[in-house]
## 1
Amino acid sequence: MTHPHAEALRPRDPGLQAERTALAWNRTGLAVLANALLALRSGWASRDAPITILAFVLLVAAGAAVLYGAWRRRHLLNRRGVVGPPAIAISAAAVVTLIACATGIASILVR
């Protein structure tokens, strides 16, 4: 006898979708890392503490995104569980994006 929700637990696309999705998390983390380093340079050069602090927050967020991408890739390639990312991961990515935008705008406006 099979589980009544067994069909829902299987991934919809057994192809490379899982790998592409996980690699996208790594690319996002590396892009945030590059921007955080640029913001950190701007903050140190202008001796502006808020920009420097935001840049450090972005560095931590970039590291978390890269680690999450590596974990998710391993998780999806071993076909463990659901394909969709949890809501907390999506929310965290949105918050990091807003912080990155604020840091970028602040580093441009500060002279």
## 2
Amino acid sequence: MASNPPDNQDAPVVLAEPFLFGILGLGIVNGIFSPFTGFVFLVNAFWYPSTFLPVSAPFILLFASLITSTLTIMLAGVPAAIYERLANGGRTNTMSLWIWVSTLAILSMPAVLRAFSAL
């Protein structure tokens, strides 16, 4: 009597490292050069814990950059997650990673253009 393999063994292995390097690179560029980083910097009274961190502009700018890049990466992952859910039953494949990178590239376009204009 032949047994069926578990569901996780019949899925192809996806090499995600090149995509993750692209995602992280675009996230870094977006965090540094995005016009929204200035807005996040200006509303620091709502998110910056000034009770135990020093209130200095470089510190606040560092965290504003991290918040901007993290939120952009998370927002770009939403269409990829929807595609994974609808098309693959929750499994990651190369197409969902391409969707994530391309959505992040579109969202990072103002920051990339600003980075090139700074050169």
## 3
Amino acid sequence: MSDKNRLELFREKRAEQNEKVMDFDHLGIKRFFNMDTNTYRDGALSSQTKELLGLTASAVLRCNDCIDYHLEQCAKAGSTKAEIVDALNVALIVGGSIVIPHLRHAADTLDFLEEEGTLKTD
């Protein structure tokens, strides 16, 4: 049994899998990854706002990996727990009750981020 929590294991697996994907050395895949990265940079909207939007979309689309990724990015961008919870509330309203299991997943991930000291609690 690993001493690592679910979020730590996710980070490791994601890094390993991204490396495998990049090893394909495919121009279209590289361009998509580049476009994705650039989308979340400051523009007319701040990177913090864009990450909250990404989190909301991820919850509505019910992708736990995406939720974890965007929760980390929200924390890095300076979002507080209250701001993140407010964004998750929007996801719940837009997506309906089917989002609830993913809201629970997000709550656990927020706990991990708080334990690490990565998340501002307000």
